Amino acid sequence: MSFVRLLKSAAIFFGFRSARQGLWPDPAHLGAATLLVHVARVDGRFSDAERRRLEAAAHAHFCRSAREATHLVRRAQVLDDEISDVSEILEMIGRGEDDRRRALTLAFAVASADGAMREIEENLVWRVGRLLGFDDDAITAIRETQTAQP
To answer: How far apart are alpha carbons 111 and 46 in whole angstroms?
Structure first.
């Protein structure tokens, strides 16, 4: 068995789709989902409201079904457990401004999902915004669009 075939077999075994179907999960999507898990857990709790918002966001932006979204969130939880610094997660997210803006927008949405954005959540998401290359005005604008929603 060739090395390439061995890698493909291992990828399929561990839940990645075949090459014809495209790589799943997309590393940028897994990175974004991992960021959202990290934000949801930063206060020491992972509330049902945060989980529902996270799975809904994953379904709307990264997955074709709710089942895929649930699976993506589970994989993101495992990855979040293994990663020690948020900058490692951010390296997985796309470099395009749209990808970075979407990640920050969703991070604010998840942080406020349980009705209150705690200081530690807000500080983390603000730091993420800066690491993603946004200035304070852009971060404030993104935050206001998300916290204004019910």
So the answer is: 10
Instruction: In whole angstroms, give the CA distance from residue 47 to residue 71.
Output: 18
Alpha-carbon torsion 38, 43, 44, 46, what sign?
negative
User: Rounded to two decimals, what is the model's pTM?
Assistant: 0.80
DSSP string over 68-107: HHHHHHHHHHHHHHH---HHHHHTTS-SSHHHHHHHHHHH
Question: Of 60, 55, 64, which Cα lies nearest the Cα of 36?
Answer: 55
Structure confidence by residue, pLDDT tens digits, 101-147: 999 999 999 998 888 889 999 999 999 999 999 999 999 999 988 76
Length of the chain measured in residues: 150
- What confidence tier does 150 reach under pLDDT thresholds 50, 70, 90? very low
Confidence of residue 18 (pLDDT cuts 50, 70, 90): very low
